[in-house]
Amino acid sequence: MQRIVTIERFIIEKEHEIPGATGEFSKLLTDIALAAKIVWREVSKAGLVDIIGSTGKVNVSGDVVQKLDEFANEIFINVMQKGGHLCVMASEESKGLIEIPDELAKGKYVLVFDPLDGSSNIDVNVSIGSIFGIFRRVTQSGKGTEEDVLQPGRNLVAAGYVVYGSSTILVYTTGNGVHGFTLDPSIGEFLLSHENIRIPKKGDIYSVNEGYYERWDENMKKFINYLKAEDKATGRPYKLRYVGTLVADFHRTLLYGGIFMYPGDSKNPEGKLRLIYEAAPLAYVVEKAGGRASNGFQNILDIKPTSLHQRTPLFIGSEEDVKLAEKFLQGKAED
Ligand code: AHG
Ligand code: MN
Ligand code: MN
């Protein structure tokens, strides 16, 4: 029988592996688990209470804001700002920086997050999620600034996500392995269920919204047609799986292997997904699990953001599959 370990106990056990770790970092991760449990409680009631549906507002990215997006954003801000570990936060659902109120203590970390990913799936009971990343501040003291948030993913000290689905799982890494914890609702605890997740070097599943095929450039079309061609020797055709919730598509890719793609196209050259709080945290997770994440030409973790909500094309998953995608996208693949 697998040992029963709560996420809080696991975080404390692993704390000594982080150079210069203080209890502050562990408490920060524990607070994130608490915020996830509160969001889960509302997500699991969605439909029973008046929390689904839209607020009628749109966020800075132009996405319609669902009530659960707003609720989740408030929960993360409320829980995380009180811990005293952060100097600033940034969220998909907040236009500018989220400052720590003057009366609250500030810490040396920065939190970036997508409080609710896959909003369009809330009303139809399809898995949704949350994504988070943690940086150390780069400014010396006082309130955090944009400089503290606009850091390349390479600087992350922790990242992870939650999938609120058939079961609810929280996956995170602090750089030493990627670990998954499944929520046991009967005791309200995240219990260790996937220790040291490693992504297969190559998979046989591709994940992309083919509805946009006609908008893609020729190299992207060539790559997808390559994956769909019959060739036993290279495990083709790949299967297509697309949930429409990034964290759900990513979690399947992490466990089964393959590649998730949200490319740029003729209408949206930078794609739809945001660099700082969607692509970079998942790129950090996948790399710590032995995978790779790219915008087609550059490792996602090496991209220095210039604005909070900037978008990036995203190709993420098994190392061999992502490298093959890069070859096609750069016009270097022989058919
Ligand atoms: P969010 O709900 O946080 O705005 O994210 C939605 C994103 C992502 O979850 C998913 O991969 C993508 O939107 C799906 O976009 P399409 O409907 O264009 O395929
Ligand atoms: Mn999202
Ligand atoms: Mn979102």
SSE arrangement:
Blueprint: H1 7-15, H2 23-43, E1 54-58, E2 64-66, H3 67-81, E3 86-91, E4 98-99, E5 109-117, E6 128-136, H4 146-149, E7 158-164, E8 168-173, E9 178-184, E10 189-194, E11 205-207, H5 218-228, E12 239-240, H6 246-256, E13 259-262, H7 275-288, E14 292-294, E15 314-317, H8 319-329
Parallel strand pairs: 3-5, 11-12, 11-13
Antiparallel strand pairs: 1-2, 3-4, 5-6, 6-7, 7-8, 8-9, 9-10, 13-15, 14-15
Helix pairs in contact: 1-2, 2-3, 5-8
This protein binds 2,5-anhydro-1,6-di-O-phosphono-D-glucitol (AHG) and manganese (II) ion (2 copies).
One manganese (II) ion binds at residues 114, 117, 246, 278.
Q: What assembly state would you assign to the polypeptide chains in this entry? A: single chain
Distance between the termini: 48 Å
Roughly how many Å is the radius of gyration?
19 Å
Helix and strand sequence: HHEEHEEEEHEEEEEHEHEHEEH
List the ligand species: 2,5-anhydro-1,6-di-O-phosphono-D-glucitol, manganese (II) ion
- Roughly what percent helix? 25-40%
**Number of beta strands:** 15
Strand order of the largest sheet: 4-3-5-6-7-8-9-10
* % residues in beta strands: 15-25%
> Kindly state the mean pLDDT as a whole number?
94
* Unreliable spans: none
Class from helix and strand fractions: alpha+beta
Q: Describe the biggest sheet? A: 8 strands, mixed
Number of DSSP helices? 8
- What would the principal axes of the Cα set say about the shape? globular
